[in-house]
Amino acid sequence: MERPNAWKTYNKIELKKLEAVAAEYKDFLDRGKTERECAQIAISALEKAGYVSLEKAIVAKKALKPGDKIYLNKMGKAVLTFMIGKNRLAEGMNIVGAHIDSPRLDLKQNPLYEDGDFALADTHYYGGIKKYQWVARELALHGVVVKKDGTTVQICIGEKDTDPVVGVSDLLIHLSQEQLGKKMSEAITGENLDIILGGKPLNGEEKEPVKAKLIRILKEEYGIEEEDLISAEIEAVPAGKARDFGLDRSMIMGYGHDDRVCAFAELKAVLDLKGIPAYTCCGMLVDKEEIGSVGATSMQSNYLENAVAEILDLQGAYSELNVRRALRNSRMLSCDVSAGFDPLYAGAYEKKNAAWLGRGVCFNKFTGSRGKSGSNDANAEYMAKLRRIMDENKVCWQTAELGKVDQGGGGTIAYICALYGMEVIDSGVAVLNMHAPMEIISKADLYEAVKAYKAFMMKA
Ligand code: MN
Ligand code: MN
Question: Residue 337 Cα, ligand 1 centroid: separation in angstroms?
Answer without folding.
Answer: 6
